[in-house]
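Lab notebook page, bench 4
Experiment: in silico fold of construct C2
Operator: M.H.
Input chain length: 641 residues
Purpose: comparison with the prior construct
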Amino acid sequence: MDILLGLLTLPLYALVLWPLVVASRRVLGVRIGAVRALCGAAFGWLVAGGIGQAFPVSLLHHGGAAIGLLIPLAGSAFLATLIFLFVAELALPRGFRPRSLRAKVRRARRYSQISRIAVKHGLGRYLTGRDESGVRHAKLARSLRHALEEGGVTFVKLGQLLSTRADLLPPVFVDELAKLQDRVAPAKADAVWAVLTEELGGSPDDVFAEFDPEPLAAASVAQVYRARLRSGEDVVVKVQRPGVREQAERDIDIVRRVAAALEDRADWARSLGVAELADGFAEALAEELDFTIEARNIAAVAATSCPNVALPTVHKALSTERVLVMSRLAGKPLETAPAADRKRLARALLRCLLDQVLLGGVFHADPHPGNLMLLPDGRLGLLDFGSVGRLDAGLRGGLQNLVLALDRGDPAALRDGLLEIVDRTGDIDEQRLDRALGALVARHFGPGRSPGLDLFTSLFRLVADFRLSVPPPVAAVFRALATVEGTLSALDPGFDVLAESRAFAAEQVGTRLRPDSLRHTALTEVMALLPVLRRLPRRVDRIGAALEEGRLSVNVRLFSDERDRDVVTTLVHEVLLAFVGAATGLMAVLLLAGDGGPRIAAGLTLHQAFGYNLLVISALVGLRLLFVVFRRSGRRSRSAR
């Protein structure tokens, strides 16, 4: 009987609670989920005196007489519902989602693990935003490197990225982070086999004529295997490590949150722009985890003509997001090159990279010795295109101007080229910048001096001193040049990188200044301007006639953009809400403080009844305003992340 009575009361509960759900959504003026709204309505009835349990049973036993219990408590139930919804919005802005909760638990567990690693290596106080002045940078840099290594693949990649930002970090940090190695033990064979079977649509033994289960190389993101197609061609198969994408996505979310918190708390983090660095790193790592992007990178780099450097060919039909099948470049390690060929190979590698950067706009961003090999025909083989940089025409032009200015030792042209490739974070004292660049040129290009690679180090320091922000594509160029310099030094210790770069600039980039190139450029620009020049006389004549006749006017339309109108409408709406809430609250206080008006019940006058009603209206308006404000601020913070 009790079970039957409980089942019969369920529709009555819904009938009682649903009006509160509809009314709360209407008053607050925003979309509220059904589960949250029902919970708020149930809380409202419970707070209003236990009606949520007593009313349906009373209605079954006493009929219409129980309706009298609902009327005096409906107002307080409604107000309690709105208060519950407001508190729930503060505590759970996105609502309750079991899947989201599980993700938050996993993130919290990983965050706790990373925090323990940071504390273990003495980095805990820096995560709270404390100033690091007076601390030995060498010790701090070592602690940071050890913590990143223990943190796993994402943090190793982050450290490798930071090691290329000499414009942001002191040299001791750059040198220490450059020691980070991306070497891990191979993943379990059965897990890798499962990934291959899922991505290829069948067992590797069925897809390939031969497949060697022993990996040629193992890194934190992927492993490489030797295989042979049924056509007889030797290939290599790059397989993403199982579970690495999920871990990387979780760690990237943590990196972004920590970066945002550091920018809020620490001046040094704001000066470095750690939030922007985290966003750039997240985008780069996301591309590295998608092998279809790497396949497109190979095709884009191959479009740049480098006759002495060979690239693998991608088999698109067998490649997916987690598996990449490429032709195998059979060769030897770079250190086995004969001494007589080393200078030729070094020149070919440098010129290929400069050609990609300054002319092609798509370049290999990580040309370290492990990604290079010596082929039997004497050419270089370039591998691993997970990290590729891209430059638009504007940045390429700025870099070309910068290289030419360095070649001439021209401070004014150096300033113009530098300002073309950096982002201005504020007002720049260009006169002081000119003097600093003049001193740099005098120091490195003076009589009897031959500029070396420390020229770029001095340029990075100058960029940091003037708070100029280096865009990620340009930072990738600097990273590639720094990496290739180490590769060239190992290949040919006597190779003069700067002299060869200046020769390339004078030979290739300088062709733009030849008479035939200038003539072609001028002709192209004039042809583009001809349509404008043809229309110009008619437009000038119309403007002159309108000015002479007094018909010339300027029409400025305020709020022509719909977004501007929405901002103003929202602002006026919120101001009116605040005014109405304050006015009704003040009127309620005045009415409740007095004893005027006819008495309608014991201890209650008509003015006081009006005062209570106005007080409820004031509370409702205030809750609606707060609800809207907090929900909008929550959306802004989520979009910023």
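Observations: The chain has a mean pLDDT of 75. The CA atoms of residues 517 and 523 lie 10 Å apart.
Next step: discuss at group meeting.
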